[in-house]
Design brief:
By secondary structure, the chain is of the alpha+beta class. The protein has one domain: PPM-type phosphatase domain (Phosphatase 2c, domain 1). It contains seven helices and eleven strands. The termini are close together.
Length: about 250
């Protein structure tokens, strides 16, 4: 389809339970009319993680679309939609004992003219691919990532730590949340990947670029990314949502 950028937009998404889990707590969704795309990785006992992630996806899409007539820019609209998603998941966890304490990561991308805005809470990531390169846009809200950023731990030590899943910000675990927002200009040939840590534990930016840029079919690229994680044991669910812009 042609996006509001005047560029053609292709999108493909895929999620997989992985090699160890019996249920999939990841969710993803998008609204092509609103130009909004989102991936979430839920957490919580029983089915609570699945509820948290699907609630966050659905609330984000609905809240963002309801503000289409607003004079606010897409940064403000995305920010407010993330806050609303947090409110919904938090309220649900407080009214249902089986879902107490549930939460989810969230990474979302929205497009306006030739600008893309990324918002995130937690350690699900957005990558930007251009001219053969691949750069992580988001900063992980995780204990290990923060230790690396402040210099108290090396990246190698963090990679070997058993605390991989300890995140410092999440949707739904408290009444308030502060998402990070990033923006970039779009050019023909640009690609964006939204993904959960089920992939990024096993594939760095270079590996992602090699797979995605050498596979012209986006759905196949998503499958190949998931296969990369599964070939290495994929202890978690794996979700990939790929966007590609062209003339």
């Amino acid at each position: 389809m042609e996006s509001q950028t005047g560029l053609k937009l292709e999108v493909a998404g895929l999620t997989d339970v992985g090699c160890k889990r019996t249920n999939n707590e990841d969710s993803y969704g998008y609204d092509l009319a609103a130009q909004l795309f989102v991936v979430c990785d839920g957490m919580g006992g029983m089915a609570a993680g699945e509820v948290a992630s699907s609630t966050a996806v659905n609330t984000l899409l609905r809240a963002f679309s309801q503000n289409t007539a607003s004079s606010a820019g897409i940064e403000e609209r995305l920010y407010n939609a993330i806050i609303q998603a947090n409110h919904e998941v938090c309220a649900l966890s407080q009214t249902n004992e089986e879902m107490r304490g549930m939460g989810t990561t969230l990474v979302a991308a929205c497009i306006d003219t030739r600008k893309i805005v990324i918002g995130n809470v937690g350690d699900s990531r957005a990558y930007f691919l251009r001219e053969g390169g691949c750069v992580q846009i988001t900063l992980d809200h995780s204990y290990l990532a923060e230790q690396v950023r402040n210099g108290t731990m090396t990246a190698d030590d963090a990679g070997a730590s058993p605390l991989q899943s300890l995140i410092t910000r999440a949707i739904g675990t408290s009444q308030s949340v502060e998402p990070d927002l990033f923006s970039a200009s779009l050019e023909p040939g640009d690609m964006v990947l939204l993904t959960t840590d089920g992939l990024t534990r096993y594939a760095d930016a270079g590996s992602i670029a090699q797979i995605v840029l050498n596979q012209p079919d986006l759905q196949q690229a998503c499958q190949m990314l998931i296969n990369t994680a599964k070939e290495q044991g994929a202890v978690d669910n794996v979700t990939c949502l790929l966007l590609r812009f062209s003339e």
